[in-house]
Design brief:
By secondary structure, this protein is an alpha/beta fold. Helices cover about 15% and strands about 35% of the residues. The strands form three sheets. Strands 4-3-7-1-2-6-5 form a seven-stranded antiparallel β-sheet. Strands 11-10-9-8-12-13-16 form a seven-stranded mixed β-sheet, with helices on both faces. Strands 14-15 form a two-stranded antiparallel ribbon. A hairpin with a 4-residue loop joins β1 and β2. It is globular, with a radius of gyration of 18 Å. The structure holds flavin-adenine dinucleotide and FE2/S2 (inorganic) cluster (FES). FE2/S2 (inorganic) cluster binds near residues 222 and 240.
């Protein structure tokens, strides 16, 4: 797919809580068809310490309105600077980058599992699955009730299960502790979040012979396969997360 470098226009910056915000962006030209799991390399202007672009997943796209959304967690200087963007500002991105989640088989029972900023690509994926006739289960993990975001949006695409670390909503604990893993039978699990969560879910899927795709959030610099800083060890050798991923079948990963 052709890569584009574009100045997008910020049309909204909605702060969901102290950690997360959503940038809504538009473009003078029509957005290309994007695939769930793909990401953009976002330039952080006015911040000399963050000269490297930051990788951010496609969170949502509305082709009719020609808008694109990025859900961003403030992790450091770069994302902090992005959180201060205002409507009318420009945001320069390189996109679409990386591969995507694969299409499930007909009648697959699907679970989407996300934690932290890993929930970002799952909304776009869920909408894509819904438009193709699937009704996935979705499990999202948060620290506490106050930090739950976009619950209503995920409800539009499937059955939503929540875990909170303090038990203030949903089941107490981490995503991987939730009872659906012992009560439901899935054919496919798509996962994005902290490595420990993806590894635990990957291990569960291997044991149960469930297809499992994980979207890795390795540190990146160039985002286009040039610097090799995002290399991951796979059964096919060392691959770049930015061009061969970020989505991998867990069976291909040497974790
Ligand atoms: C393919 C991909 C898609 C991503 N999608 C999203 C997204 O949709 N929304 C979102 O909020 N974040 C996403 N991330 C993570 C995001 O890129 C980082 O949080 C961001 O680059 C941090 O930049 P910073 O300047 O704010 O923080 P920095 O000052 O660079 O780092 C602050 C802290 O965050 C840690 N960190 C930096 N990059 C990562 C990373 N990739 N994974 C885990 N920890 C990191 C650093 O080690 C450090 O401890 C994605 C990462 C990848 C690789
Ligand atoms: S980030 Fe440079 S090769 Fe992947």
């Amino acid at each position: 797919m052709t890569k584009r470098i574009e100045d997008l226009k910020v049309i909204g910056n909605k702060h969901l809580n102290n950690d997360f915000f959503i940038l809504e962006l538009t473009c003078d030209t029509k957005f290309p068809i994007l695939a769930p799991g793909q990401f953009a390399q976002v330039r952080v202007d006015g911040s000399p310490e963050t000269f490297l672009r930051r990788p951010i997943s496609i969170h949502d796209v509305d082709y009719e309105r020609n808008t694109l959304k990025l859900l961003i967690q403030i992790a450091g200087k770069g994302t902090q600077t992005l959180s201060e963007l205002l409507p009318g500002d420009n945001l320069n991105i390189i996109y679409p980058l990386g591969n995507s989640f694969s299409m499930p088989a007909e009648n697959d029972n699907i679970l989407l599992a996300g934690g932290g900023c890993g929930i970002a690509p799952l909304l776009f994926l869920g909408k894509y699955l819904k438009s193709n006739g699937f009704v996935p289960d979705i499990i999202l993990g948060f620290r506490n009730k106050e930090r739950i975001i976009e619950f209503e949006d995920y409800l539009q695409i499937g059955n939503v299960f929540i875990t909170t670390e303090d038990g203030s909503m949903g089941e107490k604990g981490y995503v991987t502790n939730h009872s659906i893993f012992s009560t439901q039978n899935y054919d496919r699990i798509c996962c994005c979040g902290p490595d420990s969560m993806m590894k635990a879910i990957g291990e569960y899927c291997r044991r149960k012979d469930i297809v499992c795709e994980v979207s890795l959030e390795n540190l990146m610099a160039c985002g286009i396969g040039a610097c090799l800083c995002c290399v991951v060890n796979t059964t096919g050798g060392n691959l770049c997360t930015c061009i061969d991923g970020p989505v991998f079948n867990v069976n291909d990963l040497k974790w």
